[in-house]
Amino acid sequence: xxxxxxxxxxxxxxxxxxxxxxxxxxxxxxxxxxxxxxxxxxxxxxxxxxxxxxxxxxxxxxxxxxxxxxxxxxxxxxxxxxxxxxxxxxxxxxxxxxxxxxxxxxxxxxxxxxxxxxxxxxxxxxxxxxxxxxxxxxxxxxxxxxxxxxxxxxxxxxxxxxxxxxxxxxxxxxxxxxxxxxxxxxxxxxxxxxxxxxxxxxxxxxxxxxxxxxxxxxxxxxxxxxxxxxxxxxxxxxxxxxxxxxxxxxxxxxxxxxxxxxxxxxxxxxxxxxxxxxxxxxxxxxxxxxxxxxxxxxxxxxxxxxxxxxxxxxxxxxxxxxxxxxxxxxxxxxxxxxxxxxxxxxxxxxxxxxxxxxxxxxxxxxxxxxxxxxxxxxxxxxxx
Length: 384
Fold this sequence. Notes:
AspA/AstE_fam, three-stranded antiparallel β-sheet, zinc ion binding, Aminopeptidase, SuccinylGlu_desuccinylase, alpha/beta, 13-stranded mixed β-sheet, 16 strands, 22% helix, arginine metabolism, metal-binding
């Protein structure tokens, strides 16, 4: 695929459109149970955007189908079905970056459909909105990139504390609390798919730059582990036809659940950054449908053969800002998955440089503005 997808479907399914600029103004009617639980706000998203201090109290309600809904805290909502169909546990997070609004709106629509009974949850499920303060100001973060602070990196010795470090600690605590309550007796960190914990975590994002592949997913690095074919098929069902296999440890939210709890986790990039109310949500129907299938336990309709339609890329080089003399030798506005041919100089400093080898490489997430020591981009090779 060499050209970005710039056209969406002309057909918007019910519950997948925004009537105006206000993020809580939906085409579907928010039912009385939703309004009662989130009062005086209209729904989960409105509450998260509007409630500054104090945070909403931890409380519960029971839906008509017997599902127990628990507010763990601001931007954290868990669902426990009355009857659990299997041992699968689901975590869906968005807003780790506050200006990536489309997946936030998708998840909010689904939550409203759960409250109304249109979607019936059959598995323990946790929905998280990662960075409410950044959501309110429409920025990626307030003080620091939240998606670099997990796996305890927020508490490293000498680490300055701020809004994002506090939120990372809070999110880690909620994930641990949720999984401790719902994980059956299974081993963790197993390389045997049959015995590994049946936990799925999809951390949903949108990209800050254009991409030759509009939707793609990143699979966190865990030694001796590859994504199951079923999960690759799930990505295809979500209209995600590209998966990046990461090669080094990271402090991302998906890495937390993958490394610490043995989850099948993905960071999923779903399009471009837009303000609340400006997203064409029909373009996100794939991930919307996949989440609903998983919630209701109906994903068996997804055939594993769909995995053949997904391109796999390996990270072959991690670009790190080496300091004052570091220079990223590409245009600031280059798109994700731009190809570079043999001998192209990608970066250099006063002591070294990185050139592309004999095979074409592709860049994602280039950013020359990151502080010294942080990742300034990834170089990829496509698997045969």
